[in-house]
Write a structure and sequence with these properties.
Strand 3 (39-40) and strand 4 form a beta hairpin. It is globular, with a radius of gyration of 20 Å. The protein has helices at residues 14-25, 55-62, 80-101, 122-137, 160-168, 186-198, 219-230, 241-258, 266-273, 282-288, 296-301; strands at 5-9, 29-34, 39-40, 46-49, 67-70, 106-110, 143-148, 150-152, 170-173, 183-185, 205-209, 235-238. It has a domain at 5-154 and 183-212 and 278-292: Rossmann fold (3-Layer(aba) Sandwich), CATH 3.40.50.720. Helix content is 43%, strand content 17%. Helix 1 (14-25) packs across helix 6 (186-198) and helix 2 (55-62) packs across helix 3. It is of the alpha/beta class. It has eleven helices and twelve strands. The strands form three sheets. It has an eight-stranded mixed β-sheet with strand order 3-4-2-1-5-6-7-11, sandwiched between helices. Strands 8-10 form a two-stranded parallel ribbon. Strands 9-12 form a two-stranded parallel sheet. This is NAD(P)-dependent oxidoreductase. Pfam families: Epimerase (PF01370).
Length: 305
């Protein structure tokens, strides 16, 4: 591994925590940003207390780092400004700190496949604009952008309930019956990051990542997989789009009183109803030699979520 010191954001989150453990296991010196932690942990991680709004913390985080991996991101928000503050401005500040630090040789932004369709939601728009801002201020630092599809695995709180109910014999379907979905296990995403770190030379590129299932999945194929695993039928219940949109609008109204950012918003409904979330690993496989190893069927069968 060419990088000796790696700066990491989002290290306490679902993807970032798995990545941090893998980096530490590989003998990399990890500097991780966190709101409530500081000092050096038993595993050697140097925690930098601060946020993406704190320029001093970002300078300390990136000082002397060979590589910067930006996993932090906001997935819940009451308006576009909530998302922009973190996914756009926070990403830009981190890139600026990495450039000013003078030692960063490569920068990786963990974005989202949603950035491919920025008009769908506040979140998608912020991920797209965050990518643009990072590239704009990178200077000579090569910027790689990973756009994974829906990531799942141990520690994930979003897809786990869906998979648990699926294996119990229930599937709530959204959108059109022939909507195409794709997934990626967190271990495969982390292995892709390791391939990026191991690459002797990197160039600024954007990669889409999924588990490699040809043509992705639709609701019928998900039900079929679960039915095979449990050796029993899976009942499908259709969630009408009007009901989902009504709940989303009510969530926004309620958030004005609770001051809590909802997950289900009208924009999120647009994402859920989008007809095609498939992608291809061709570019990243050709460039970095990465191939996913865990198909959804295997993960469900072995409860790898």
């Amino acid at each position: 591994m060419s990088a000796r010191v790696v700066s990491l954001t989002g290290a306490t989150g679902f993807i970032g925590s798995v990545l941090r453990e893998r980096l530490v296991a590989r003998g990399v010196e990890v500097r991780a940003l966190a709101r409530s932690r500081g000092g050096t942990a038993e595993d050697g991680t140097k925690w930098i207390k601060g946020t993406l709004e704190d320029e001093h913390a970002l300078a300390e985080l990136t000082r002397g780092a060979d590589a910067v991996i930006h996993c932090a991101g906001k997935v819940r928000g009451r308006d576009a400004r909530d998302f922009d503050a973190v996914n756009v401005q926070g990403s830009k500040r981190l890139m600026e700190a990495a450039r000013l630090g003078g030692s960063c040789e490569r920068f990786l932004l963990i974005s989202s496949l949603a950035a491919r369709h920025p008009t769908l939601s506040w979140y998608a728009a912020s991920k797209f604009e965050g990518e643009r801002q990072v590239r704009a201020v990178a200077g000579a630092i090569p910027v790689c952008i990973f756009r994974p599809t829906a990531v799942y695995g141990p520690g994930d709180r979003e897809l786990r309930p869906v998979f648990e109910w699926l294996l119990r014999g229930w599937l709530v379907t959204l959108g059109q019956g022939d909507s195409l979905l794709s997934f990626l296990h967190v271990d495969d995403l982390v292995s892709a990051v390791m391939q990026w770190l191991d690459a002797p030379v990197v160039q600024s590129q954007t990669f889409e990542l999924c588990d490699g299932q040809a043509q992705g999945y639709n609701w019928a194929s998900l039900a079929s997989i679960a039915s095979d695993i449990r050796n029993a039928p899976v009942r499908q219940a259709v969630m009408p789009a009007a009901v989902l949109k009504g709940i989303a609008r009510a969530n926004l109204v309620l958030s004005r009183f609770t001051r809590r950012a909802p997950m289900l918003t009208p924009g999120k409904v647009n994402e859920l109803m989008h007809p095609d979330w498939t992608c291809s690993n061709a570019l990243i496989s050709a460039t970095l030699g990465w191939e996913p190893r865990i198909l959804l069927r295997q993960a469900l069968r072995n409860h790898l979520f």
